[in-house]
Amino acid sequence: MTEPCAVTNESGDRYKAILLRSQQQHRLVGVHWELTYRCNEKCTHCYLDVLPPGAKVPGELTTEEAKRVIDELAELGAMTITFSGGEIFVRQDFFEIAAYARKRGFAVRLYTNGILIKPEVADRIAALRPVAIELSIYGADAATHDGITKVPGSFDLTVRAARLLKERGIKVTLKAPIMRENWDQIDAMRALAAEVGAGWQYDITIVPKHTGDRTPLKHRPSDTQLLNVFRHELGPDSWHLVPYREDYRFCGIGLTSLTIGPYGEIFSCVGARVSAGNVREQPLAAIWRRSPVWQELTSLTLGNLPVCATCELRQYCVRCHGTAAFEDGDMLGCSSVAYREARLRRQALQEKGAN
Question: What is the rounded average pLDDT of the residues 61-88?
């Protein structure tokens, strides 16, 4: 089968041009929507305080409220919605919400652990024609993966989901956070993705819970482990040094996207989680156009980050403003974990001859 919604170079360039104009105009393009904090896994590194899958959560946006928000997003001209959780498929109304988003013309991406995806569920997903589905994986074998999720058999179910989705022509990506438990399994996880016909990506980001609980940080790789990851994955041709420009941004926070929480809260992004308002209290358009949060966040350029502007590691840094705020108490100050990663990244690149 052919993959739905395939993106050509021409359409990709067109999208980049739209995104650039949207950034300049503070136009909403993409939405990350956490539909629920309920989950059927108990991942020990998760940044959310997840609830059991069958928990009664009267505060979650109802089906009709979700549809109203989709209408408001359409009126604002947004183009894409990424549905995530928790676990999206524990919501009984997920397909009704997602189908409505597709009816309103949104490109839809799904984040899921996949363990509820049986053949009949895969058929319903295929009918949505999502842009892509990203499945979380935590190791190349059941012992490692299930040790993180605390759900025996979850590894086999996630791999089964990847196969079922690929059989239906859906673009699938296996994505893994790199942790102490799996840092040496990158090649094996990449091979697993290739075996099932999926894309592959990894992320070194492990952050505290959004409540401030730092327990997940025990999973961060040690300096030696992370350095070995960088030695393996990075090279002079795969890393583009951050330029020194006062208007340079480490990310697009506040420009063209927002995050919706399960209870209607509007956040700047998943990482920073700065609240801009709640859709139960005011229209989404008013939050997007009038909240002072966006103006404050769009000023987060290199020239307005005095510590970063003079840091000798800035060319190797992948900074998250939210992590700086959560871990170090200052969104404008140095992010200690970003500094650590930049130091190790520079070492790995210099060992390979990068200037």
Answer: 97
Instruction: Report the C-alpha gap between 53 and 86 in whole angstroms.
Output: 9
pLDDT in tens, 139-151: 999 999 999 999 9
Burial class (CB in 10 A: 0-12, 13-18, 19+), 303: middle
5 HSE (CA, 13 A, CB side): 18
Tell me the whole-structure pTM to 2 decimals.
Answer: 0.91
- Render 275-338 in DSSP notation, one character per residue: EEEETTTS-HHHHHHH-HHHHHHHT--GGG-HHHHT-TTGGG----HHHHHHHHS-TTS--HHH
Q: Give the other-Cβ count within 10 Å of 13's Cβ.
A: 10
3-state secondary structure of 264: coil
Out of 7-11, 47-51, 144-148, 171-175, which region has the weakest mean confidence (pLDDT)?
7-11
- How far is residue 194's CA from residue 180's CA, in Å, rounded to a whole number? 23
